[in-house]
Amino acid sequence: MIAFLKGKLVLLEPTQVIVEVNGVGYQLQISLQTFSEIKEKENIMLHTHLAIREDAHVLYGFSNEAEKKLFQQLISVNGVGPSTAIVMLSYMNSHELKSAIIREDAAALQMIKGIGGKTALRVIIDLKDKLKKESW
Questions:
Q1: Nearest CA to 102 among 131, 77, 136?
Q2: What is the dihedral of CA 105, 111, 114, 120, to 10 degrees?
Q3: Which of 67, 93, 53 is nearest to 4 (CA)?
Q4: What is the mean pLDDT of residues 41-65?
Q5: Predicted pLDDT at 134
Q6: Cα–Cα distance between 18 and 4 in angstroms, integer?
Q7: What would the mean pLDDT of 48-61 be, rounded to a whole number?
C-alpha cells in the first residue's frame, strides 16, 4: 500500500496531478478541494489511496488525512465508487460533506452531480453514526 507521496509537482490539473518522486512520475486523481490546497506549491505531500480494478490501478491523492479518511468512508457505501466519492469531495469540502451527512440533509447531497435520492439516503444511513462518533 502506498500511504503518501512526497515530491515535486510536475503537472497540475483540476482533476489530476503528476508528482515526481525520485525520478518516477505518479499520476493521481484529486478532488477540487485538494487542487485548491496545492495549486500554489511546487513540492507537495499527498496522502494516497490505491484502488485496484480489473482493468486499472488508480491512485487517488488527498491534501490531508481527514479528506482521505472521508473518501474511504464514502467508498465503503454500496453504490459509491471512487469516482463518485471524488466528485462529492469536489462539490463540498470535508467539513460541509460531513455536516450534510450528520444533519441527514439528503437534498444537499442530491445537489452533487451523480447523486440521486437513493444514493444520498444510503450515504446518510451508512455514515451518519460513524461520523457523529468522530471528533471534528
A1: 131
A2: 10
A3: 67
A4: 95
A5: 78
A6: 13
A7: 95
Report the amino acid identity of residue 2. Answer: I
- pLDDT bin (cut points 50, 70, 90) of residue 135 is low
CA distance 64 to 56: 24
Cα distance between the two ends of the chain: 26
Print the SS3 string covering 10-75: EEECCCEEEEEECCEEEEEECCHHHHHHHCCCCEEEEEEEEEECCCCEEEEEECCHHHHHHHHHHH
Q: What does the mean pLDDT of the chain come to?
A: 94
Angle at 36 between CA 31 and CA 41, to 5 degrees: 115
Point out which residues pair with 11 in neighbouring strands: 18
Burial degree of 85 (CB within 10 A; 0-12, 13-18, 19+): buried
Which distant-in-sequence residues (6+ apart) come within 8 Å of 79 by Cβ? 118, 119, 122
Mean pLDDT of 21-33: 97
Grid coordinates belonging to 65: 488525512
